[in-house]
């Protein structure tokens, strides 16, 4: 007799993506990384790819429902968007830059403006 946790895990493994951006040794989606996401958007009968670039400020780990929050500034207005990591609509994830951070959630960046929002670059 299997437990409920084992049953749920066996079902979830069928739907998890096995992409290179989910690699545990060199993850692309980490707190403080600036990433560029290719996301499929339906327009009528066609689909087009829209790219979204921003700073990862939060990650929520929930198995198949793992999600991350991206923040970017557009014309002085901060925009945040949540992406599901295992979504079939995500085509690509490219890491642009890594930053040295000491927090697991970077919500304090919401109140900061201008140059104070910069983070130290990790080499």
Describe the 3D structure.
The chain has 123 residues and is mostly beta strands. The chain has one domain (4-102): Roll (SH3 type barrels), CATH 2.30.30. It is 10% helix and 43% strand. The protein contains 1 helix and 7 strands; from the N terminus they run αβββββββ. β1 and β2 (46-60) form a beta hairpin.
How would you briefly describe this protein structure?
The mean pLDDT is 84. Helices cover 10% and strands 43% of the residues.
Overall average pLDDT = 84
Order of helix and strand elements from N to C terminus? HEEEEEEE
Low-confidence runs of at least 5 consecutive residues = none
Helix content: under 10%
How large is the count of helical segments?
1
Shape: globular
Distance between the termini: 50 Å
Beta percentage is 35-45%
Protein name: 50S ribosomal protein L19, chloroplastic
Keywords: Chloroplast, Plastid, Ribonucleoprotein, Ribosomal protein
GO biological process, one term: translation
Pfam families: Ribosomal_L19
Summary tags:
single chain, 123 residues, mainly beta, SH3 type barrels, five-stranded antiparallel beta sheet, two-stranded antiparallel ribbon, 1 helix, globular
